[in-house]
Amino acid sequence: KMEYKLRKAEPRDVSDILRLVKELAKYEEMEHQVTLTEQELLEDGFGDTPFYHCIIAEIQGANSSDEPKVVGFAMYYFTYDPWVGKQLYLEDFYVMDECRGLGIGSEILRHLSNLAMKTRCTGMMFVVAENNEPSVQFYKRRGAEDLSQEEGWRLFRFDKDSLVKMATPPEE
Amino acid sequence: MDFSIRAASLDDCKDIMRMIMVSRHVRAARNLEQDGFSKNPFFHVVIAEVPEQHRTKEGHTKIGYALYFYSYSSWKGRSIYMLDLYVMPEFRGKGVGKALMSKVAQLALAAGCHQLNFTVADWNKPSMDFYLSQGCFDVTASLGYHCMRCEGEALEHLAQP
């Protein structure tokens, strides 16, 4: 029986975090979009003001002398709405294929929901691709509302190039 | 029309509150001062101001705002999420909205951010058209991303052992 444990990510985990980020992106056929580096993950997650937080799921090897293996993670941060207050935003959530069905995903979600409540967040938010049926069902089964479907929310984005254009003042 | 854009300070709280209440049709914005203007703010605001000669009949010179906070993309790294962008109706069509967004973009780039995200309601066609004309793209339409939320009882239930 595979034993696993959840813990807060540490600086030494950044290469595993990036590995899992890329695995998840690959699953969504977006691996080429990942430009984030281990250096950025280190500075942005473990500096004075972290931009994100991570919990890690690791399994013990077959022998007690084996290094534990990082097999899942969740990346999250806190967002804020003046009307509803703090929210926990779940940016990425992934368990390696070979470790599914052990309850790791549910345990991560339970841990995050508990954390959301302890930190007085009024909700937990995230995005899911509509064609990712297993994930959509996973979340709907647990009571998540689809704000895009129910309230017409659309996520809009300015990428780096369009940000630069927008930041440049117009010619007088 | 002359106007200026700058980062908001504690003195702007009352005006920000006033505009939030109008823009979102709500009666109050909880803890704005504490959450936005203490040592570790949860969010940041930029304000649009007009000179005295253009003040509204109620005497207001602060006529627009953008409220944002830092977020993170697992693909790109540092990002900004813009929660609110509002210009008082009588000051629209004069480039104030564009200027507020330009300021947020400048601050985003200065902080090393790679993208700016926000949500728009699909029934709000004027807003959608405005944003698309500024060079952004509709992630929900192109990637099929849906915004989801777990709150109230669903969140409590999820937190149970």
Automatic annotation (TrEMBL), chain A:
Which terms does the record give in the GO molecular function aspect?
A: diamine N-acetyltransferase activity; spermidine binding
Would I find Transport among this entry's keywords?
A: no
User: Where located?
Assistant: Cytoplasm
Q: InterPro entries under this entry?
A: Acyl_CoA_acyltransferase, Diverse_Substrate_AcTransf, GNAT_dom
Tell me where in this chain the N-acetyltransferase domain is found. 4-171
**Catalyses which reaction(s):** spermine + acetyl-CoA = N(1)-acetylspermine + CoA + H(+); an alkane-alpha,omega-diamine + acetyl-CoA = an N-acetylalkane-alpha,omega-diamine + CoA + H(+); spermidine + acetyl-CoA = N(1)-acetylspermidine + CoA + H(+)
UniProt EC number? 2.3.1.57
CC per GO annotation? cytoplasm
Q: What pathway, per the record? A: Amine and polyamine degradation; putrescine degradation; N-acetylputrescine from putrescine: step 1/1
Record-given protein name: Diamine acetyltransferase 1
UniProt keywords (A-Z) are:
Acyltransferase, Cytoplasm, Transferase
How is the quaternary structure described?
Homodimer.
Q: Which organism is it from?
A: Amphilophus citrinellus (Midas cichlid)
UniProtKB/TrEMBL annotation, chain B:
Give the top-rank taxon of the lineage listed in the UniProt record for this protein: Eukaryota
The record, for InterPro entries, names: Acyl_CoA_acyltransferase, Diverse_Substrate_AcTransf, GNAT_dom
Domain N-acetyltransferase: start-end pairs: 14-161
Q: Name one GO molecular function term.
A: N-acetyltransferase activity
Q: Pfam families in the record, alphabetically? A: Acetyltransf_1
| Record keywords | Acyltransferase, Transferase
The keyword Acyltransferase is assigned to this record = yes
Q: Which residues constitute the signal peptide according to the record?
A: none
Q: Which family does it belong to?
A: Belongs to the acetyltransferase family.
Protein name (Swiss-Prot/TrEMBL): N-acetyltransferase domain-containing protein
